[in-house]
Amino acid sequence: MDRPTRGKKFRPYRAIEASRPFVSSSDIDQNLLTILLRDLNAVVFDIETTGGNPEKNGITEISALKFRGGEIVERFYTLVNPQIPIPGIVRRMTGITNKMLKDSPLIDEVMPKFIEFIGADVLVSHNTIGDLKFLRHFAGEVSAHNLDNFFLCTHLLAEKLIPEASDKSLKGLASFLGFAEKENHRAEADAIMTLKLFKELMARIEFKKIMTLEQAVRFQGDTESAIRLGWGVKETDLENIPRGPGVFYLFDHNQDLLFFSSSHNLQRDVFSLRQLHTLPKHLMKVVLRAHSLKVRAHHNFFSAFLDESKDPRRHQVSFHPHKFHLRSVQCFNIDKEGSKYRVSISSPAEGTVHAFGRVNDQRQAHIFLKDLASIFSEEVTKKGFLVSESDLPLLESLFRGRLDHHDTKASERPLEWLKRIFSGEDKSLHAAKLSKLKELKLPGALDTLLSRNGLLFAQGVNEWQVYLVIHGRAQDPFTIKLSPEDWIKSSAANAIVEKLLKSEGLPHRPVDLHDEGVVNAVIWALSTSSGRTRDVIKFFDIVELRDLVN
Q: Measuring CA to CA, which residue among 164, 170, 209, 165 is closest to residue 189?
């Protein structure tokens, strides 16, 4: 039912999770879970109440329909005397008055009969979690009964199966589907409307190849049922998972990808997903929808991280891998945004022109960003601040540590910009900004991360994988048996090193969607110590290579 609530917004998940223990998966009737939806024994019901809190309010009306093989086989209906006055807003909404309920049975008499009517059937209603709050409260209080029936909520299912409907209330969905009755907010009419909606949802769910109760409950996505069902990946998928680096993938029952991530230790990280209480709520819901798992082992972790980063599906999964492993580097980013440039503290992404970092002290960095924005007369927000194209060379000089030489580097600046800053007012404004910028102290030593050129070596088992890094982008690797220092000095390395030295003159380009992940992986590798990565990663930049070759 769609009921009014008073005061603070009602949070049904929190209320249920805090008030009652979850049933362990070992206590679940596995035969019930495997039953086909078309053979489901269900009780479709609706209740009316005096308010939203069962501790302070009561049930005024219950209507339920026992549903078997597409037919109604039995009905349950009663008014209930809540023994408290019905608020005016509820009277106006439902038409139920105190006088109507004066001679109706109390919940003490009704609840045992309703529990018997329900039996072990699956419960179906609209906004079921709110309704179950009341039923469980009074089932426990009156009959000491733990109401643990599985449920299917037409509201939660409609969110996924009828996304095109703008109004997901029972009346809104009924109107959208063309079977709405006159508005009366009574339990009997709403139960019939819920049954019609449920039939429509069951017809639509077949197109998702969801056939069993367990699949439907997992698809529904409520936290309580998901935790109760537990980890859905087959035990056979968990056998022989290697302990080394690689990428793991979780799939639903249709083999659609749900989540994936690179890992230093596949076995450890896969099994950590079973500790549901340690996961973010969103990831927990994703994990609990998983039906199967696959892993891809790698010789070293950097290779695994690149594999994850190059996978275009990382933009399609609802929980990004970076949120799981937290391997992303925060930088001072300068991103192209229309005709302007945005300065922010974030990870390089599509449109990033410069990335200076890494940022280790977030608090200090945000203070610096605020001071920097004030020099350009801009207000800083969570997304940073905007500057014009004419101010971009000043920012580049600041982050590169070249402010003292800024005015002698005229050849590095666009001609049109030079004309503006050396004419009239613009020259004095530029000079004032330059003077203030020189007073700022950068928060730590910053590298020009997107301009890094060199050779990156990642150690595997008895070998090294070598990656050419050109403007922060890693090329396809090759394998060597020698140590990096010895290999660079060998004749086999000459052509590769020469190719890399020539890349210094290549024009710089902004990060695009295709190499965004690769850039993040390379920057993470170059800006994280080997002790923290648990990998041996060596990087020879272009200056070192020139010295070694010469």
A: 170
Please indicate, yes or no, whether residues 465 and 406 belong to a single structural domain of this protein: no
* For residue 327, cis peptide bond before it (omega within 30 degrees of 0): no
Greatest pairwise CA separation for the chain in angstroms = 102
- By three-state DSSP, how is residue 83 classified? coil
pTM (predicted TM-score): 0.75
Q: Identify the three-state secondary structure at position 272.
A: helix
What are the tens digits of pLDDT across the range 231-254?
A: 888 888 888 899 999 999 999 888
End position of a domain, from candidates 286, 303, 325:
325
Q: How many domains does the chain have?
A: 4
Residues labelled as active-site residues: 185
Q: What 8-state DSSP symbol labels residue 381?
A: B
CATH code for the domain in which residue 43 is found: 3.30.420.10
Q: State the residue range of the domain holding 491.
A: 452-549
Question: What length does the chain have?
Answer: 550
Q: Is 503 exposed, middle or buried (0-12, 13-18, 19+ CB in 10 A)?
A: middle
217 and 241 belong to one structural domain: no
CA angle 336, 337, 343 (to 5 degrees): 65
In a domain, 2, yes or no: no
CA angle 81, 84, 85 (to 5 degrees): 105
- Sheet strands (E) in 21-176: 41-49, 59-68, 71-79, 122-125, 151-153
